[in-house]
Amino acid sequence: MPQPHTRDPYAGWRELTLRGMILGALITVVFTASNVYLGLKVGLTFATSIPAAVISMAVLKFFKGSNILENNMVQTQASAAGTLSTIIFVLPGLLMAGYWNGFPFWQTTLLCVSGGILGVIFTVPLRYAMVVKSSLPYPEGVAAAEILKVGSGEHEDAEQGQSGDSGVREILSGGLLAGLMSFLSGGLRVISDSASYWFKAGNAIFQLPMGFSLALLGAGYLVGLTGGIAILVGIFIAWGGAVPYFSNIIPQPSDMDMTAFAMQLWKEKVRFIGAGTIGIAAVWTLIMLAKPMAEGMRLSFGTFSGSGSASAERTEQDLSPKSMILIVLGMMLLLGFSFYHFIAAAQMSAGIAWTLVVVCTLLTSVIGFLVAAACGYMAGLVGSSASPISGIGIVSIVVISLVLLAVGESSGLFADEGNRQFMLALTLFCGSAVICVASISNDNLQDLKTGYLVKATPRLQQIALIIGCVAGAIVVSPVLELLYEAYGFTGAMPRAGMDASQALAAPQATLMTTITQGIFAHNLQWNYIFTGVGIGVALIIVDFILKKSSGNRLALPVLAVGMGIYLPPSVNMPIVVGAFLAAWLKSRIRTRSGGNTENSLKRADRTGTLFAAGLIVGESLIGVAMAFVIAVSVTNGGSDAPLALGLKNWDTAASWLGLAGFLLGMTVFARRILKAAR
């Protein structure tokens, strides 16, 4: 083994290996499927770096010559692939708009490949400034590096039972627990996945909601207290203010019960307020980051051109500028081909078709480059999981819609209603490519930070990221097709008579579609969106005051408030509970740990992070497995709920059992974290 006094103690160590790439591809399949399901169900995805690192360490230790650098490459590849699943924030809109009736494999795959690889390349010039020279915290990147060091025995905590084996046990334990709950609710349907208490004060309708998803409990633990409080504020704005207000001034139809009326008001009015809040939060973030991003790009390009202090050391080697230019040009050609194939089906004149191909390719590339820098910086600031990809997507969709609206009206395309629907679909297709760029950019610098801390070769990591994009792209389309056929999406059911309550909400895709339709039809409810913008501006001021007065200890993330307004309350509440649980556990550990608080918190945080990841993966995988069972059943003329027991008059019992299961899961979660902290 190399000696510590050598200049590069890892020189000659294997990094990007065939076995590592195969393992990374296998992990990719699991995590991409999990993220696609979770994203379609509740509009959230989870960062896959940490669980991928743990699994890699546990598997590769059985192979001769495995090391920390090889494990890092596996997590880099797997995290890129898992992140690419965020294409589901836009792409299902093509089915909701009635343009597609499935997910064409090659179109979906090429879009993911080209967009994802552009996201990798666009963030490479930012590495030097935003990773090496920056003080950005990169929470998930640093956490992944710590876990890799622990697993390799290069960290002081390695002697305290924090091994790769223990990490895998936490993931498996969380996965089994959440998987069982998910099977009982979504498979056998003997317990409920949510419950709500509705009441009136005069004509105003109020709701006290609760969801029983352990995956969302885990997501809340990862989000943290600040994000949880912000989401709770959003819930209060929506269900303590907006819905009661609208239900008080708008008469309730005689043929509609209280619950259905309140949900209709929320869907048709209040969600647009949330969209406005999310949009202004994303714009404000871009404005705030403009100066540091510009400086970072100036330094990085200076290094590339030779005016900076480029190093020939292994740990400073990026892809060459020539390689990057060639890859970008290649991906733009691939994008152009994808757009041409999509546009050719509309059977319009060659001139207009090629104009749209060029416009869409340039839009994707230019907007993609801008959002790449923004997302990279935001990931460094708040982590990949908390970075506002949805907000970026909304802003991108609005810009693309307005540009294509101008092109369509100037060329007379909108004279035909069929062309109007096509332009809507093209907007969503183009927006999907931008989301791919944004999501990979969001993940790339996080991975490069991990690599920087463990002394990996950046160039090889960038190659691993490209491999991960290709592997993930191949998986996305089949998983989307499977879930669509099994459950359907809200507003897009593949077969008549399907259970609409089991449809996947795909909340971001629903919103993107609605916004695009509204812009093209000139009937978008801008008044509600502008109300949300106004609320967002007020919250931005509050956030600024909190940060200023507390020395950045307190904050109110505006994007999280917007998500609290926009997402269903049964989705938001378990996240809030998970966030408050994390805060309570940290307080409890500080109280009882004595003089060893820092180490206790580190052990607890690692266990909590891995168990939470297990909860998310377990529930998601059961969802995917059930989708397969349902697809087989329906294909053979059976039910879309083949395992449901169909118990009579069971609703109340199911709700209480769901609550009991949730509390049990929360108790097990808390006990494991407290035990790890001892």
Brief descriptors of the model:
single chain, 678 residues, globular
Description:
- The protein has 22 helices and two strands.
- It has 678 residues and is an all-alpha fold.
- It has a domain at 18-163 and 282-300 and 323-517.
- Helix 14 packs antiparallel against helix 15.
- The longest helix has 48 residues, at 258-305.
- The chain is globular.
In short:
This protein has helices spanning 18-42, 49-60, 68-83, 93-96, 105-123, 127-132, 139-151, 164-187, 214-223, 225-249, 258-305, 321-344, 350-382, 389-410, 417-454, 458-487, 507-521, 526-550, 558-566, 569-592, 597-635, 651-676; strands at residues 194-201, 204-211. The chain has 678 residues and is an all-alpha fold. Helix 9 packs antiparallel against helix 21 (597-635), helix 14 packs parallel to helix 17 (507-521) and helix 15 packs across helix 17.
Order of SSEs, N→C? HHHHHHHHEEHHHHHHHHHHHHHH
Spatial gap, N to C terminus: 34 Å
Q: Mind summarizing the main beta sheet?
A: 2 strands, antiparallel
**Helix/strand class:** mainly alpha
Low-confidence stretches: 1-6, 155-161
Instruction: Give the overall shape.
Output: globular
Strands, count: 2
Overall mean confidence score, pLDDT? 82
Side-by-side strand order of the widest sheet: 1-2
Strand content: under 5%
- Helix content class: over 70%
C-alpha Rg, in Å? 24 Å
Number of helices, counting only DSSP H or I runs of 4 residues or more: 22
